[in-house]
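Problem: given the chain below (89 residues), write out its structure.
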Amino acid sequence: MTVALYARRKQWPLDGVTVRLTHSRIHAADCIDCETKEGKLDQIETELTFSGGLTDEQRTRLLEIAEKCPVHKTLTSEIKIRTRLAAVS
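Solution.
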């Protein structure tokens, strides 16, 4: 969505975006560029396809924008989930 909005604002000929995700669990020790070195980590590999008459420079910029979208930022940041039991009414 972020990529499409950006392309529309720039009036670039983006006809569609296809996103393919692969999820796996890897040993933290096997991850060279990860801060965590113990236990297992979730790894998500993303493949983007931009259709339309875009230049290589435009495709590269759209990839940069995709990595700055709110969902990407949330998934790449530290996440703390707090769960509580709701009061019965």
